[in-house]
Amino acid sequence: MNSARLMTASLDDNFSLARLPAEMIAKSAGMNPTRRQQWRAGRALLAEALAVSCGCETLPELQISAQGKPFFADTSLPHFSLSHSKNHLQLLLCAAGEAGGDVEQIRPRAHYLDVAREAFSDTEFQWLMEQAEPQMAFWQLWCLREAWLKQQGGSVWQMDKICLNPALKSFTSEPATDTQLWYLADGSVMRALALPAGVSEPEEYAFNAASGDFIAQASRQWSAFSSRGLLR
């Protein structure tokens, strides 16, 4: 798998847990119902994707990096990133290197300008305020940042590690990374990806809950942000 693959699904899809190890299902038993649904759905989707792309009968062993990012113990398997927002679930697979993805339900957010002023750079905030739909611009910037942080194994508390220049479609970061960011406004959601340089727009698939298959989707026009090196 030389390119990235993006699999989309819904949290309430009727996922089979048959490909999940028994100890993984048991681990989720004590979670609250909402968290358990999210946790199991993400791993079931990952298991189905690995069955299709790599022939794995059950979900392979997962480990956690020092930064808290899950990865496969078998290094021949692809890197992955799971994300969900409201009822939307997405999985990004990339064999070329570390990747990160984020999906956000486009929705009103109280005090979003206060959040943007605190979390974004002056350049980003000024650009946001100049847009015809500033709240849409907010979700674009937020989603791009989240995708990069997930690629790095970071958290939302490290928003100051990346600075976007939306006018130039570029970004700087700490550390500097050989990464390209992609975003797409997809109906009611915003999607963003952080992919290794040289990996272009993803192949897209939608999970069919009735059949358990992945349906190839028509290619769409993603927009790219290129790295300009170290954040200063």
Automatic annotation (TrEMBL):
InterPro entries: 4-PPantetheinyl_Trfase_dom (IPR008278), 4-PPantetheinyl_Trfase_dom_sf (IPR037143), P-Pant_transferase_sf (IPR050559). Pfam families: ACPS. The keyword Methyltransferase does not apply. GO terms for cellular component: cytosol. One of its GO terms (molecular function) is magnesium ion binding. Residues 100-156 form the 4'-phosphopantetheinyl transferase domain. Keywords: Transferase. Gene3D superfamilies: 4'-phosphopantetheinyl transferase domain. It comes from the Bacteria. One of its GO terms (biological process) is lysine biosynthetic process via aminoadipic acid. Belongs to the P-Pant transferase superfamily. Gsp/Sfp/HetI/AcpT family. This is 4'-phosphopantetheinyl transferase superfamily protein. It comes from Rahnella woolbedingensis.
